[in-house]
Amino acid sequence: MYKYDRFDQEIVDARVDEFRDQTRRRIAGELSEDQFKPLRLKNGLYLQLHAYMLRVAVPYGMMSGRQLRMLGHIARTYSRDYGHFTTRQNMQFHWIKLEQAPDILAELATVEMHAIQTSGESIRNISSDHFAGAAADEIADPRPWAELIRQWTTFHPEFSYFPRKFKIALTASDNDRVAALSHDIALKLVPGPDGEIGFCVHVGGGMGRTPFIAKLVRPYLPPQHLLSYIAAIMRVWNRYGRRDNIHKARIKILVHDLGAEEFTRQVEEEWQLMLPTEPPFPQAELDRIAVQFAPPPFETGLADTIDPAAAADPAFARWLTHNVHAHRQPGYAIVTVSLKPPGGIPGDITADQLELLADLAERYAFDELRSTHAQNVVLPHVRKADLHALWQALDAAGLATANVDLVSDIIVCPGLDYCSLANARSIPVAQKIADRFADYDRQKDLGELKIKISGCINACGHHHVGHIGILGVDRKGTENYQLLLGGSGAEDAALAKITGPGFDEDGVVDAVERTIERYRQLRTEGERFLDTYRRVGFEPFKEAIYG
Amino acid sequence: MDNLLRFRDDEPHEEPAVTLDAFLEQSDATAVRLEAGEDARLLIPHFGRLALVEVSFPRFRDGRGYSSARILREAGYTGELRAEGDVLVDQLLFMRRCGFDSFAPAQPLDLDVVKASLERYPNVYQTAADRSVPVWNLRHG
Question: Is B127 on the interface with A (CB under 8 A)?
């Protein structure tokens, strides 16, 4: 895992000092709220319905036990004993007091963490594959590149007052686990014509009220040009993106309005102009970073099996089926800790649970943890021989729900329970759906089924790319829910389609159930919901939903 | 111009800045005002007679002027580059890094806060239009 050197630490420490000064000037009235707002947002501090919310960056989702323990400490000291994992792999704390925010940042800085650019019209935290370095299907480790991008995008002087937010995702596998094509830039590590590994570049994806799948801009970019090419993309948008309408400001609108071909032409032209004065990063720097992502000291010669006596326990066996994934190293496995227990709030985690996960990561997983865009936590390197003991410890803390990628593993935004932008509550809808399908055998029978719920058009809950999406809207003062079908945030990315008139809270849960029952009637053996939908189309489902 | 803050040793340029259209039409103009949406590259053929470029910031959240500054400096412009308008102390460091070397803020800036803001960060992560050496060069000599 990447360790700060003194340069990194000095920059983060300076940020704490700067934000403390900005907060002081705001409280003293030297800064207006209009002037302060973009500054606090660039530091992840939102004013929500009841209090401030602080979003802490978890670059490409990587954390150590020490960092998790600090997050637990912050939850306990400054919030209400819990934190919340977001769909950008970050952690946010509600109930924050403005005057304490600088102290929280100072505490975070002691464990090499910060809240830089987790909000505002800036380059956001870069997201990447939560199985990086462990997955058998990646062609290279994306994390050194992600860290290089993290540093280069931190306090970028030209690109800090963009038309709107800007999100980059990086993958290295044909299996997209980060919803890459819903990002402003999607980078994928691919082999080039000479065998060298470079980047395939897509631009202009996004959610919000006008969702788009990112469009191909360059099939292959030689790796040494990564940063200058990103700079060219961002400069074209910074100059020509719309600033007259916040809803049309994202790069996806520019790409759509110009067309992918013309946008690409402008980027390539800008890039050629920039190249002579944009020095490439030193290879030695990439090498320095890459060393820090070397594989942990795996034991060799381990049996690549799980103790059959333990696996006879049906609860453990279920967890093995859904929450344990293949690792590239024989004798090891990847574990996903579900933060979607029955009756819980998706993505929420208590201070006690954070501390327990820190202990378990140190004991069983080479002190590594990952947050996922699906709001779960991954222990990436666990010996198969330790899986049963790990499961027992997780189970005792309510962290062993066996439902990864099943119908109750729902992505959901905070909604009207917290968020000042929301039109409707989203958490209770998720809870009711999870409750409706609580029976394990029913969930297992349905297989992979990704439900995603947003409490407003901003789509933080990724409803556009849910196999089943739910969008909460305000209809004449009452909460109303639209149902969408057929989206995907994976490598087969697609936008979901709205079924028709909306429902009230219980009505949308019933509509989800009717949708799923129709799927059960229509599916062929082993066919996922999404594949059935794609095969039979929209109408049979619409008929089932509206009769 | 009471609020003018300069980081240059030469004397302030006396001629008033004219609009981009006027500058391109008048072959003897030496100072130009660039609005946020205007293309800085149109000035490149005229650097020889250009002593002052004033880049307008209609709102401090409008970041187009940062790219205008980078483009001018990348193309070799060495004259005065002035940020004018809604220029606030918390944006000054990035403006300096993009190549601005003079500032005409609509409201006066507290010079102590200016100094603290410009000196706060000991290191930077990128090459820009200033002389700051990015940490990747410091790390590898």
Answer: yes
Side-by-side strand order, sheet with A451-454 = A411-412, A451-454, A468-475, A478-485, A497-498
In CATH terms, the superfamily for domain A134-288 is Sulfite Reductase Hemoprotein, domain 1 (3.30.413.10)
| Cβ-Cβ contacts under 8 Å, B138 against chain A | 7
| Domains of chain B and CATH, by start | 5-140 (3.40.50)
Chain B residue with Cα closest to A275: B74
**Does the beta-carbon distance from B116 to A21 stay under 8 Å?**
yes
Residue B117, chain A, CB below 8 Å: the answer is yes
The whole-angstrom distance between A83's CA and the closest CA on chain B is 30
What is the reported pLDDT for A417?
Answer: 87
Amino acid residing at B41: R
Q: Say how far apart CA A127 and CA A8 lie, in whole Å.
A: 19
Of B67, B88, B125, the CB nearest to A238: B67
Task: Single out the residue of A60, A221, A234, A61 nearest to residue A147, CA to CA.
Answer: A60
Instruction: Give the model's confidence band at B1: pLDDT under 50 very low, under 70 low, under 90 confident, else very high.
Output: low
CB contact under 8 A, B123 and A11: yes
Torsion of CA A174, A176, A182, A184, to 10 degrees: -70
Q: Which two three-digit tokens encode residue A410?
A: 């729902």
* Burial group, residue A10, by CB count within 10 angstroms (0-12, 13-18, 19+): middle
Instruction: Kindly report, residue by residue over A262-296, the tens digit of the pLDDT.
Output: 999 999 999 999 999 888 999 999 999 999 999 99
Cross-strand partners of A83: A349
Query: Could you say which of B63, B93, B135 has the minimum Cβ distance to residue A161?
Result: B63
Q: How far is B22 from chain A (nearest CA, A)?
A: 22
Q: Say yes or no: ipTM exceeds 0.90.
A: yes
The residue ranges of DSSP E strands in A368-467, in sequence order, are 369-371, 377-383, 411-412, 451-454
**Taking CB atoms and an 8 Å cutoff, what residues of chain B touch A156?**
125-126
Q: Provide the residue ranges of all domains of chain A, joining segments of one domain with +.
A: 6-109, 134-288, 308-396, 411-546
Closest residue to A17, CB basis, from B66, B88, B120: B120
Q: Does A121 touch chain B (CB under 8 A)?
A: yes
Pick the CATH number of A411-546 from 3.30.413.10, 3.90.1150.10, 3.40.50.300, 1.10.8.640: 3.30.413.10
- CATH number of this structure's domain A308-396: 3.90.480.20
Give the 3-state secondary structure of residue A546: helix
Which residue in A6, A123, A150, A161 has the most chain B C-beta atoms within 10 A of its own C-beta, making it the best mutation to test that interface? Answer: A161
pLDDT digits (tens, 9 = 90+) for A234-258: 999 999 999 999 999 999 999 999 9
- The pLDDT mean for chain A works out to 96
Q: Please tell me the CATH code under which domain A6-109 is placed.
A: 3.90.480.20
- Compare CB distances from B62 to A21, A243, A281 and report the shortest one's residue: A243
